[in-house]
Structures are given as structure tokens and as C-alpha cells.
Design a protein that fits this description.
Layout: H1 4-8, H2 21-29, E1 42-49, H3 55-66, H4 72-85, E2 92-97, H5 99-105, H6 116-120, H7 122-126, E3 131-133, E4 136-140, E5 166-172, H8 175-189, E6 195-203, E7 205-207, E8 218-220, H9 236-239, E9 258-259, E10 269-280, H10 282-294, H11 301-309, H12 351-355, H13 363-366, E11 371-372, E12 375-377, E13 400-407, H14 411-422, E14 450-453, E15 458-461, E16 468-478, H15 481-486
Antiparallel strand pairs: 1-5, 1-6, 2-5, 3-4, 7-8, 9-10, 10-13, 10-16, 11-13, 12-13, 14-15
Helix pairs in contact: 10-11
Length: 488
């Protein structure tokens, strides 16, 4: 028998579940999608309000939903079967609770997830004028979240709606299957007294590489770049197949999973979950790529975009290679060859470098990383396999990313990444500038706007304006299945 701390202290070899009773209990009680992304290309995020419901009604609804909830073990075994047979693992259902659900359930304070950011809620945290983090006695920039009045109108983020008390994630292999799953969930919700505030639907965008890569196509975001490649891994089976000579994706599960404070079982576990609906202005981003390229005579716009993102569109790291390589997007790299801003092949302000610095001695930085599980939303024109988005398909609104991430500490992981890294023009070095695509604050000085092209050794000033806007979201906790089933 292992204690929970033993399980979470190092990557899990999940296939040992049939030899270890504690591991079996852990995997059976932990929700799917945390240890490993579900991999489906279609999702529905259903937001619920519990206003007017009694404690018993909410508890009964959660109990009923627990029987639909997919466990980590079910997900992993289904994925293994798919590799062997090609038979789909089918529907994934996950349940997340916001702070309001715990209050309405009357859960004792000691059994409510204790993260201060979770307890305050995303709306309140987004209004703070500055943030501070553990062991660092200085103020950092605010999150810069748009006021809820500027969020989506209609749907779950309408101003007429209260903050959601819960979210259900439904994922499957087709839009039709997701719709069928929504119908199945609604049968459980009907008569419960809860209110469906709205649904955000996810639709993964994919593109095949010029050579090799995922036969299904690599996941890309709406600006056209491979997304989700650089992920912490905490399953030994995944690590066995991942090169790690320059940068290790090996992480302890304790960075993303913690004991469920309900203590329903000795190994009951959960994870904090950040959900943000981020709208992408594709037209502005692509126009700025051209303008930045124009600052450097002869520069290809894709090279300019690679300076902004830190990878070429096919996922090739600009700090490692001078042109796209195709094939599997490389993740085994670091920035040891970039000792200072003037010599950097990959700009310090590039998005992937801002949000994952990959320093040689970077354990403190590694502790900030999250397990990202996002998916794009919004429809784009259909295109042949391998083709990029056409130039006449560059929307300014209604497409973007449903950012979803698991972590053990919202403030020290998500909020730190957004505030101290992305929004901070002095990270990693003085006058670096803010993260071009995702910062929610602006550059303040001309020094923040400087770009360096290592190939020509030229410098140019250009203020690449952020192209991502917050349109909704909240902080949640993914509780153990035993908590959903047994209640407080």
C-alpha cells in the first residue's frame, strides 16, 4: 500500500494499477483529463448555476453526475485499447466546482479547497491593481482582465447571469456525438432545479505537417501555429517516448494534483482548474506579422511570426533552427545558447519563451508550469489536408482558444505566469517587453518595443499589440469522484 504523497511525488506508471491497490483506488477516483489530455476534437463546456437549490438537491445532482464522470483509469485504459484496436474510447465527462458550489453545499471551511485565488474568484482577482507572490517582496502587474461588461454577450458569460457554480466538460470524436452527450447530461439535469447558464463549444483545428508528424494532423491555434506541444508529463509511459536531452518534460504529479480536502478516501485527489475564453483577432495578428517583417529588409513574414511566437508555424523552435523543419514538432530544446537579449536568436519576449523560459537552472521557473488542456473554438473555412488558413479567412472575432489548465496553486502558477511573466515588460530581462500575443497590458516605453533579428544583426522598434481578449471564465476545482458521489 502506498500513501497519496508517495503516488504524487514522482511520475505515475499507470499500467501498474492491477498490481497496486492504492494506485487502482487513486486512478479510479481521479477525474479524467488531468493526468493526460483526453485527445478529442469536439467538446462542450456546460456552465451551471445552483441558485435556489437546497443543499440536498445539489448533493443529489452531483451524485447523479458522478455516474457519468470519467475516471483517469477509464480514460487511460480506453486510450490503450484504441492504440491496439482503433476502437474509439468514446465520451469523456468531467465535473468542476466553483467556489459558489461549496458555499451552497454548506461544506465546512476545512474541506473547501483552500487556494486563496479560487476562494476569491476570477472576477475579483482580475480587478486587483497588482499582485504579489510567495517569497517575492515586490508588486507585479495586474492580470489586466477585461471587465465582465466586455465579455461575451449571451451564453454563459452574459451579464444577466450569475457566476457559474459548476462546469461540465463533455468531449467526443464528433460534433454529433457531443450533442448526443449533451442530451444525455440534460436528462440528468432536468428536474434537478439547476440552471444551465450556457455552453461554450470547442472545435480543434488541425493541420498536417509537410513531412511526418501526427497522421491526424497537429493541433494548431487560429493564428496558424502548432499549439500544445510543450507540456509537462507525469505519466512514465509518456516519458518513455519523449526525448529529453536538453529539456526534461518530467514533472511530479504533485505540481498539478493535490489531496481533495473532502478526504472521502485516503487517496482522493483533485486539481485546480482555470478556464478562460480567449478571443483571437487573427486579422490584426497577421497584419502585424507583415508590419514587423517590413522592419527588417528581406524578412519573410513567417520568420517575423516565429520571432513573436518563438516557434515557426509547424512548431520548429526558432531558437534551435533558422527555418521550419516539418515532422514532429521539436520539444527537446533550451535557450542556453542565448546568453543575452542582443545575441538571442529567440527573442526573450517571444510567447513560448515568456511562458516557459527553459533556463538551465530553472526549477523555480518549472514550478510555475501548468498542465494545459485547451481547445480552439469557432468555425473556419474547410481546407485541404496540410493547407494553411487562406488569406481571406482572417476573422477579427468569434474564434479563439478555450484555455483550460490544471494546477496545484492558481496564484503561483496561472496568475504568476500571466502577471510576472506575460504582462511584465521586465521579464526575463530589463526592457524585454510584454508577451506579444497574450499580454493583457501594453508596452510602456520604446525600449520595450525593440526587436532583434539575429540573422542580420539588425534592431527595429515595433509595438506588437496584443491580439487576444478575455471573453469569459472562472476558477474551478476538479474534485474526486468520491466527493461527487458521497457529498460533503
Amino acid at each position: 500500500m502506498f500513501k497519496l504523497d508517495d503516488i504524487l511525488s514522482k511520475p505515475v506508471r499507470w499500467r501498474d494499477w492491477d498490481q497496486n491497490a492504492s494506485l487502482l483506488a487513486f486512478l479510479s477516483d481521479l477525474q479524467a483529463n488531468i493526468l493526460k489530455g483526453h485527445g478529442r476534437d469536439h467538446t462542450a463546456n456546460i456552465f451551471l448555476g445552483f441558485g435556489g437549490m437546497s443543499r440536498d438537491q445539489i448533493a443529489e445532482l452531483l451524485r447523479r453526475l458522478s455516474f457519468l464522470t470519467t475516471s483517469a483509469l477509464d480514460q487511460l485504459r480506453a486510450a490503450e485499447a484504441f492504440k491496439l484496436t482503433g476502437v474509439s474510447g468514446g465520451r469523456i465527462v468531467c465535473v468542476f466546482l466553483a467556489r459558489g458550489a461549496y458555499a451552497k453545499l454548506g461544506v465546512d471551511d476545512g474541506k473547501v479547497p483552500g487556494d486563496a485565488a479560487f476562494r476569491a474568484g476570477m472576477r475579483a482577482r482580475g480587478k486587483l491593481p497588482s499582485l504579489r507572490f510567495k517569497g517575492i517582496p515586490v508588486d507585479f502587474p495586474p492580470l489586466g482582465d477585461a471587465d465582465p461588461s466586455q465579455w461575451d454577450h449571451g451564453g454563459p458569460w452574459s451579464q444577466a447571469n450569475p457566476e457559474p457554480d459548476a462546469m461540465l466538460l463533455v468531449a467526443d470524436d464528433s460534433a454529433e456525438m457531443v450533442d448526443a452527450s449533451i442530451f444525455a447530461v440534460q436528462r440528468v439535469l432536468n428536474g434537478s432545479g439547476c440552471r444551465v447558464l450556457g455552453i461554450d463549444k470547442g472545435l480543434a483545428q488541425r493541420r498536417r505537417q509537410s513531412s511526418g508528424g501526427n497522421p491526424k494532423g497537429e493541433g494548431i491555434e487560429h493564428f496558424g501555429y502548432v499549439d500544445g506541444r510543450s507540456q509537462p508529463l507525469f505519466l512514465e509511459e509518456d516519458l518513455d517516448a519523449e526525448p529529453h536531452a536538453r529539456w526534461s518534460p518530467r514533472f511530479a504529479p504533485s505540481q498539478f494534483i493535490q489531496a481533495d480536502p473532502s478526504h472521502c478516501t485516503e487517496v482522493a485527489s483533485g486539481s485546480y482548474f482555470v478556464y478562460r475564453k480567449l478571443e483571437q483577432n487573427v486579422k490584426r495578428f497577421k497584419a502585424q506579422e507583415l508590419e514587423l517583417a517590413g522592419k527588417f529588409p528581406g524578412m519573410d513574414p513567417e520568420r517575423a511570426g516565429a520571432m513573436v511566437i518563438g516557434r515557426f508555424e509547424d512548431g520548429t523552435p526558432v531558437g534551435l533552427l533558422a527555418e521550419p523543419a516539418g515532422g514532429d514538432p521539436i520539444n527537446d530544446f533550451n535557450y542556453d545558447g542565448d546568453p543575452n537579449p542582443a545575441a538571442a536568436r529567440c527573442p526573450f519576449k517571444a510567447h513560448v519563451r515568456k511562458t516557459n523560459p527553459r533556463s538551465h537552472d530553472g526549477e523555480a521557473e518549472r514550478s510555475r508550469l501548468m498542465a494545459r488542456r485547451g481547445i480552439t473554438y469557432g468555425h473556419r473555412a474547410k481546407r485541404p489536408n496540410g493547407a494553411d488558413f487562406p488569406e481571406d479567412d482572417r476573422p477579427e472575432r468569434d474564434v479563439g482558444l478555450l484555455f483550460m489548465a490544471y494546477m496545484a496553486d492558481i496564484s503561483e502558477q496561472f496568475e504568476f505566469t500571466q502577471s510576472a511573466w506575460a504582462n511584465n515588460p521586465e521579464f526575463q530581462h530589463e526592457n524585454t517587453g510584454v508577451d506579444p500575443p497574450i499580454a493583457q497590458t501594453r508596452n510602456r516605453t520604446s525600449a520595450h518595443m525593440m526587436w532583434h533579428d539575429a540573422s542580420t544583426k539588425r534592431d527595429a522598434e515595433y509595438d506588437f499589440a496584443p491580439c487576444v481578449s478575455l471573453k469569459g471564465g472562472d476558477y474551478f476545482f476538479a474534485p474526486s469522484i468520491s466527493f461527487l458521489q458521497r457529498g460533503p
